Amino acid sequence: MPTKRWGLTLPLPGVSLADTKDFVQLAEAEGYTDLWTGETGGPDGFTPLALSAAWTENVRLGTGIVGVFQRGPALLAQQAAAMTDASSGCFALGIGASSDRMVEGWNQIPFRKPLSKVEQTVDFLRVALAGERTDTGFKLETAPAHETPIILAALRGKMLQLAVNKADGAFTNFLPLAGLPKVTAGIDAAGDEFELLCRFFCIPGEREQVEGLARFMFSSYITVPVYANFFRWLGYEEEIAPMVEAWENKDRQGAAAAAPWELIEETFLLGSPEQIRERLDEYVEGGITLPVITPITTPDNHAALIKAFAP
Fold it and tell me: Exposed, middle or buried by CB within 10 Å (0-12, 13-18, 19+), for 135?
């Protein structure tokens, strides 16, 4: 079934937030329905959306995702309420546990019981965003006039189940096409309105042009324990083992060299814009209701790719 939603990742690689307006407005004009941020080492997840709320008319703005360890639940409720207000209801709050590397390594916050932490945060947000007082005594001064959907970052079984039970959708990432059926099986009990989002790293070009970058990106991310466990859950333990071992031995070049190319091709969207669109269509046919596209290119090529990947 064709998806009704089509997303673009913000911020765009190599583009300052001050220079993002034209690209955001181009995306809306080309039919993109959504703009979703990430939150790693660049801008935070909310600022690009706050700017985009002033630059767009009807695009939905979503955090995809912000971590529940790095912000307290009351602050998350305040930020979500502010974005819902600023966008006149065109906002969705995507939250997740993030990763041990970002939480514990970068922010020096213990990464303990992520499933419980996410569930407790969802429960808190449902009460707070409804304008009610939480059991901690927090209450928003002004409740949002519009409902704020909550999307959970969910890779494996228990988190997918939590998303089905308590959220409005699930956000997956770095998903090989062959692994899609296992993810969709985890949300079988969800209703028709439940969303399954996936971010796609689109790197246009022939293998000899993109291989170095693709190997670096794959080895940098899939060696993070939460992603390594995700790929093991999908059945790729043997394929990623040499790469993970090299990374754990602090051999970054060796890890990139050991990254399994067939699995990289299965996970990233490579080739011509036409080939990338064909792959996107396969994911949509397999159950992704909202592809979130991340074009990996130079600033001078973003406009062309936004048009090429438009719905």
Answer: exposed
Mean pLDDT over 272-276 rounds to 96
In 3D, which of 148, 194, 189, 144 has the Cα closest to residue 171? 194
Q: Is the CB of residue 144 less than 8 Å from the CB of residue 85?
A: yes
Q: What is the mean predicted confidence (pLDDT) over 282-311?
A: 96
Mean pLDDT of 184-195: 93
- What 3-state class would DSSP assign to 23? helix
User: For residues 18 and 12, what is the distance between their CA atoms, to the nearest angstrom?
Assistant: 12
d(CA 76, CA 122): 10
Task: Tell which CATH classification among 3.30.43.10, 3.20.20.30, 2.40.340.10, 3.40.50.1240 matches the domain 7-205+272-308.
Answer: 3.20.20.30
| Residue 137 host element (H or E) | none
pLDDT value at position 1?
A: 40
Token pair in block for residue 141: 């001064």
**What residues does 169 pair with on adjacent strands?**
151, 195
User: How far, in Å, CA of 199 to CA of 125, rounded?
Assistant: 24
Between β-strands 66-67 and 60-63, what pairing exists: parallel, antiparallel or unpaired? unpaired
Give the model's confidence band at 3: pLDDT under 50 very low, under 70 low, under 90 confident, else very high.
low
The span from the CA of 32 to the CA of 8, in Å, is 7
pTM, whole model, 2 decimals? Answer: 0.96
- pLDDT at residue 2 is higher than 90: no
Using a 10 angstrom Cβ sphere, with 0-12 exposed, 13-18 middle and 19 or more buried, the burial of residue 65 is: buried
Judge contact between 237 and 302, C-beta under 8 A.
no
> Rounded distance, CA 105 to CA 144, Å?
34
Beta-bridge mates of residue 61: 35, 91
Torsion of CA 209, 179, 67, 134, to 10 degrees: 160
Distance CA 84, CA 105 (A): 31
Domain boundaries, the chain: 7-205+272-308, 212-268
